[in-house]
């Protein structure tokens, strides 16, 4: 559980009075999901469904990932999306069922939100629930104890929980106590940036997803280019893990000192940047998370 830790919402610049409801609702959703997961014989598809009085149907669903029909007690999963996404969707739909079964939580949400915002909050909560089902606290804590807050821990979590690297990243970041920024980097085709004629074109190693531990106010925007001489680029090239003092390559060109742990995996690199404390000074807000 993450009680006692500052939820990220309170440090974000767009914190609103709603935060007063959202943080406890997330905590309650995590409790519901963790309790559900603890009662399962395992975390494979069949086991995941075993705690729910509902049937599971795979079918083509166009743009939709899945749905839960409480009336007929059916979980529908889009059969046309990749397996790891189906798995996260299954846990998400189970969370819808758990949420519908908690009258107190439901009425709190209906008191605090309405319309489209209510729908958004419910979707957010079901993602929180899905992460808690597929990545139990005990698993994350075990990996952090074994590998530290590292690129390796991120790769292991994605593999062991069988979730996407970005799902693993957000869950790992949330339970990391040290001032760490995580990133998943991959070779991608560069998008043209209006107003940035110097930006190279073609394929390059860029940030795909990034997120920090609670209290870390920086993040790397998706699409941020990794410089060729950076250890993350070297890890991709050599297929060898690299850990050394280096820097966070912000898009603005600013280099923030950090201990970099880069763990290559196929065409991606899982990275942790442990920020090194230094005296506070002005003008540091240009890359703050939005
Ligand atoms: Zn949903």
TrEMBL record:
Record region (Disordered): 1-21
Compositionally skewed regions (Polar residues) per UniProt: 1-14
InterPro entries linked: G3DSA:1.10.10.1030, IrrE_HExxH, Rad_response_metalloprotease
Residue ranges of coiled coil: none
Organism of provenance: Deinococcus aerius
Name of protein: DNA repair regulator protein PprI
Domain of life: Bacteria
Domain IrrE N-terminal-like: 53-172
Pfam families: Peptidase_M78
């Amino acid at each position: 559980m993450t009680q006692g830790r500052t939820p990220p919402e309170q440090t974000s610049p767009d914190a609103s009075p709603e935060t007063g409801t959202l943080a406890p609702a997330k905590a309650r959703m995590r409790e519901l999901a963790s309790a559900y997961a603890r009662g399962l014989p395992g975390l494979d598809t069949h086991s995941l469904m075993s705690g729910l009085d509902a049937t599971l149907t795979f079918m083509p669903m166009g743009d939709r990932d899945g749905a839960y029909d409480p009336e007929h007690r059916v979980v529908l999963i889009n059969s046309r999306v990749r397996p790891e996404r189906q798995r996260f969707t299954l846990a998400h739909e189970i969370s819808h069922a758990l949420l519908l079964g908690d009258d107190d939580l439901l009425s709190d949400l209906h008191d605090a939100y309405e319309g489209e915002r209510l729908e958004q909050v419910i979707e957010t909560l079901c993602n929180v629930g899905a992460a808690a089902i597929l990545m139990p606290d005990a698993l994350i804590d075990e990996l952090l104890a074994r590998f530290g807050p590292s690129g390796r821990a991120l790769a292991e979590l994605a593999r062991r929980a069988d979730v996407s690297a970005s799902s693993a990243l957000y869950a790992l970041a949330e339970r990391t106590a040290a001032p760490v920024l995580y990133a998943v980097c991959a070779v991608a085709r560069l998008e043209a940036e209006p107003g940035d004629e110097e930006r190279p074109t073609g394929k390059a190693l860029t940030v795909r997803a990034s997120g920090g531990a609670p209290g870390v106010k920086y993040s790397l925007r998706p699409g941020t280019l990794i410089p060729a001489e950076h250890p993350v680029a070297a890890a991709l090239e050599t297929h060898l893990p690299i850990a050394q003092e280096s820097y966070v390559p912000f898009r603005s060109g600013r280099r923030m000192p950090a201990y970099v742990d880069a763990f290559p995996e196929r065409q991606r690199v899982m990275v942790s940047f442990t920020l090194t404390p230094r005296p506070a000074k002005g003008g540091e807000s240009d890359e703050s998370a939005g």
